[in-house]
Amino acid sequence: MSAHQLTSVITSSCLFFLAGFIGCSQLLRLWDEFLTQSFSGPVARYRQLRMDEQRLAHGLRLWSVLLVAGTAGLILIQSWPIAFLYPCLMAVAPPYAIEYFIRRREQLLESQLIGSSTGLANTVKAGLSIPQGLKSVADEAPFPLRTELDQIVYQFDHGRPLQESLADARKRLQLESFTLFCLALEVAVERGGRVNITLERLSTTLQEWFRLRRKLDSDTSAGRYAILIMGFCPAAFVLLFLATGMNAILSLFTDLRGQLVLCAIILLICFGVRWACRIMNIKLT
């Protein structure tokens, strides 16, 4: 092979690889946009809380791989009922996973707000103005609350009224404790008065509210763990019977009637777990 031919082969290979890479990148971007629109509700709330969007994208891509690979594997082994049920269950899984991470972020913000409200009351008592106190508290606040307070301070430093910055933050976050915090500051900025006393009372209220939330979580934790255990018990029993050599269990996976029975069991478990979770979902108002 001549040098000219070798150069042509290498160039064409590089161009082919580049075209494939660009095409795959575009397809991946379009797929990410499709997933974002499909789960627009929880994704929008995820973004409102300024959570890691790269982590969300990677999680949705992993979910897509599991969905396609699992469905293809079930079709290859001709397990038709389960091949139909599996993608249906997988399709409703991402919102629950995203909402779980959203609840964790909301609880983290609420717990961090207690210390920040106390710190702000102390700075105001020391003679600082509310914007100066917010800046001092934001420098010491942990992540992710620091990001929210920094945003409020940044907007104020660049000419936006503090009331508007606070209103924008509370409308975006939509957290009861943060809404109460911002409304107290808005009223204090607008009408003045003994701001430090207001903030101290607010801090006490938030502490009591958070204590009740923790007590409620503690009182219902046993029930939640019981739901989790009961949900996994049928799968554990099936694996145990398979390990002990009970051939009758194999009919659940190899026989059509067994697969239909297995699908019915899975649906009953999902329905029972969902119902029990709704019962245990007690909210403070």
By secondary-structure content and strand pairing, the structural class works out as mainly alpha
Number of helices: 12
Number of E-state strands: 0
What is the class of the domain at 104-212 in the CATH system?
Mainly Alpha
Q: Helix content range of the residues, please?
A: over 70%
Order of helices and strands: HHHHHHHHHHHH
Morphology call: flat
CATH level 3 topology of the domain at 104-212: Receptor-associated Protein
Strand content: under 5%
Query: What profile does the largest beta sheet have?
Result: none
Output the radius of gyration: 27 Å
If classified by CATH, what would the architecture of the domain at 104-212 be?
Up-down Bundle
Between the first and last Cα atoms, what is the distance in angstroms?
79 Å
Structure explained in plain terms:
With 285 residues, this protein is mainly alpha-helical. Among the domains are: 8-76, no CATH class; 104-212, Receptor-associated Protein, CATH 1.20.81. The chain has helices spanning 3-38, 40-48, 53-76, 80-91, 93-125, 130-140, 145-157, 162-173, 176-191, 195-243, 251-254, 256-280. Helix 6 (130-140) runs antiparallel to helix 7 (145-157). The chain is flat, with a radius of gyration of 27 Å.
Features:
285 residues; 12 helices; mainly alpha; flat
